[in-house]
Write a structure and sequence with these properties.
Layout lengths: L1 H7 L6 H6 L3 H23 L2 H6 L7 H24 L12 H26 L5 H22 L7
């Protein structure tokens, strides 16, 4: 909001004000993480015996719940905060590659969605092995994109 006001006035954004803003990618990571947290908590309610007994599908949702909680909520939150707060990579590219950051975000979420669809069906006896392998490969690629982008920022003073 403040940045927009400064930019409309034609004046350069003061460095202090500009550095205080949360990067767009970080906001997407954190907001997506919160959505996965809510989804996981809703699944935790649905997995309880009264509801689970009425819908057999809910009896096999445990692995999906764990993936939404650990990869969707925790990992995504960590990726977003690390992208924002780790030491600067360089003056020209303080957060490394924005493109690689977005790739990690998109691949992580694609992998999570594929897994959330395939895992319950696999547990119910439907052949979803290929989709599960694909989702795991996409998530691995997301992890590598994050590591490649973040590794140079983890260094001694």
């Amino acid at each position: 909001m403040w940045r927009d006001t400064w930019q409309r006035s034609g004046e350069p954004v003061p460095r202090r004000l500009d550095s205080a803003l949360v990067p767009t990618l970080t906001r997407w990571f954190i907001k997506a993480a919160m959505l996965y947290l809510v989804a996981a908590l809703l699944l935790s309610i649905a997995m309880q015996p009264p509801l689970r007994n009425q819908a057999p599908f809910l009896a096999v949702i445990w692995p999906t719940y764990l993936h939404l909680l650990v990869l969707g909520w925790l990992t995504q939150l960590i990726f977003g905060v690390a992208f924002w707060l780790f030491p600067k990579h360089s003056p020209t590219h303080p957060r490394g590659s924005d493109r690689l950051g977005w790739i990690s975000f998109l691949l992580l979420n694609l992998g999570l969605i594929l897994r959330a669809v395939a895992e319950p069906w696999q547990a119910l006896g439907r052949p979803m092995g290929a989709l599960l392998v694909a989702s795991a490969a996409v998530q691995l690629a997301a992890g590598w994109a994050f590591v490649i982008n973040t590794w140079p920022r983890v260094r001694e003073r």
